[in-house]
Amino acid sequence: MIQLEKVKKYYGQDDNKLWVLKDISLKIQEGEFTAIMGPSGSGKSSLMNTISFLDGDFSGDYFFNGEQVYQYDDKKLSLIRNSTVGFVFQSFNLIENYTAYENVELPLLYSGCTHKEVRLQVTEMLEKVGIGDKGNNLPKQLSGGQQQRVAIARALINQPKFIVADEPTGALDTKTSDEILTLFKQLNEENGVTILMVTHDQEAANYCSRVIDVRDGLVVG
Ligand SMILES: Nc1ncnc2c1ncn2[C@@H]1O[C@H](COP(=O)(O)OP(=O)(O)OP(=O)(O)O)[C@@H](O)[C@H]1O
Ligand SMILES: [Mg+2]
């Protein structure tokens, strides 16, 4: 599904170039649950931004299902990104004055679904991620783990082709992390959701079906 061929990227210019992706070729198949590991500053987030259609400033080729998506203008690119990628962040990034239900509903409001369809889909998704009874709570009325479940539900509601999660358990305690990772694993195994997860944590990587090791802008394993 995802294929990078000799992808290189730098920040800065002229003598101040900092190469963050040095020569990355990799393939990710549909249905994989992949961990991206590596030291701070090794280029993991830069790699994720490239893969998730957020940053087309690189050389080399990126094929998504055989297509070079970055050839399109920003408008079409963001349409493709919205329908293809679900984002999960370390800090949840929920809208504070929206309920859990409203946060998950938001991506569907532009989908053309009827009110009834939206209600059904959001309710089912909240159930699926284990917070069916928390729809009316504001983020501040939820634990960290519950907030991350809302974020995962929001990421999944548009049925994206893949999920990118950059340190999704970075702000959670060990027990809650295990619960969130178990949910990811379940979504991957039972619903075939393709997941790319950046993590520093070997324990977290153990939940994945595959690990990509990034060091200093290179894939080393
Ligand atoms: N917008 C930017 N402008 C200039 N340099 C940047 C920019 N974004 C990242 N960098 C640099 O690129 C390198 C790789 O950054 P990146 O965020 O990809 O690392 P990372 O592996 O995700 O690190 P961490 O584990 O700390 O999140 C770092 O040295 C960083 O300082
Ligand atoms: Mg990062």
UniProtKB/TrEMBL annotation:
Keywords: Amino-acid transport, ATP-binding, Nucleotide-binding, Transport. One of its GO terms (biological process) is amino acid transport. The keyword Transport applies. InterPro entries: AAA+_ATPase (IPR003593), ABC_transporter-like_ATP-bd (IPR003439), ABC_transporter-like_CS (IPR017871), MacB-like_ATP-bd (IPR017911), P-loop_NTPase (IPR027417). Coiled coil: none annotated. Residues 2-220 form the ABC transporter domain. GO terms for molecular function: ATP binding; ATP hydrolysis activity; transmembrane transporter activity. It comes from the Bacteria. PROSITE patterns: ABC_TRANSPORTER_1, ABC_TRANSPORTER_2. GO terms for cellular component: membrane protein complex. Gene3D superfamilies: P-loop containing nucleotide triphosphate hydrolases (3.40.50.300). PANTHER family: CELL DIVISION ATP-BINDING PROTEIN FTSE, LIPOPROTEIN-RELEASING SYSTEM ATP-BINDING PROTEIN LOLD. Belongs to the ABC transporter superfamily. This is ABC transporter ATP-binding protein. The lineage of its organism: Bacteria, Bacillati, Bacillota, Bacilli, Lactobacillales.
